[in-house]
Amino acid sequence: MRRAAQAARRFKRATMNYSLRNDLSFCTAGDRVIFLDLRKDRYFALGADAQAIFDKLIRRADLNPADSPKLADLVKAGLLNCDNEGSAVQPCLRPPQPVASALETPPARSSFADLLLVLWALLAASTALKFRSLLDVVQIIERRKAHAARNKAGASPEDPAALAALAALAAAFQRISLFWPTHEHCLLHSVAMMFCLTRRGHSPSLVFGVTARPFSAHCWVQEGEIVVTDTLDNVRNYTPIRVV
User: Fold this and answer.
1) How far apart are the first and last CA of the chain?
2) Which of 50, 67, 53, 58 is nearest to 28 (CA)?
3) Rounded to 5 degrees, what are φ and ψ at 231?
4) Which of 64, 126, 161, 194 has its CA 20 to 30 A from that of 151?
């Protein structure tokens, strides 16, 4: 009995060293755990047995030696890292709860500079998504955000001038959407908007979200509490799975 208890304690300590790959994230949407694999550019869910074990890791529940084979399968599948640097397995940290949308503010007039910026960004985003992996594109955005963060430009619903600037860019996107419809190209528009905003010194968030039943994936850009590329009602249908 003592040996069994000692083995169980050793097993429990070892399981605390599991962590996710940096390019893998997940969320709990309804009763499903859904993953986004940036490296392979795909969403997927676990089977019932694997999800039961993964739920234990999320809840930091007690594990037992009988769980070891299933944990080993998750490691072998590349979902988990197991090393001394491991940390708690946690779902995607959500962005601030949005309270306004740049698309739902009073109409703003876009300048010629706004239109040129949008056209450049759409072409740059289209090229990046065509010739690079989603992981590469995300890393480009992360570098642009780090550079833009030094400027510390931002916007809030209480800042009319900043909100008007976002609304002007959003209006420019709406005009260009005659050629790239937003509902068909949310990733393209979101990446392009990230390019626009970081170029102007902002450090917004690119949010990937999912629904479980039925499964659906979507993405949008959010500057603080302001949604820039979508409406509030639409983004509230999705659970964030990755925030860049």
Assistant:
1) 49
2) 58
3) -95, 160
4) 126
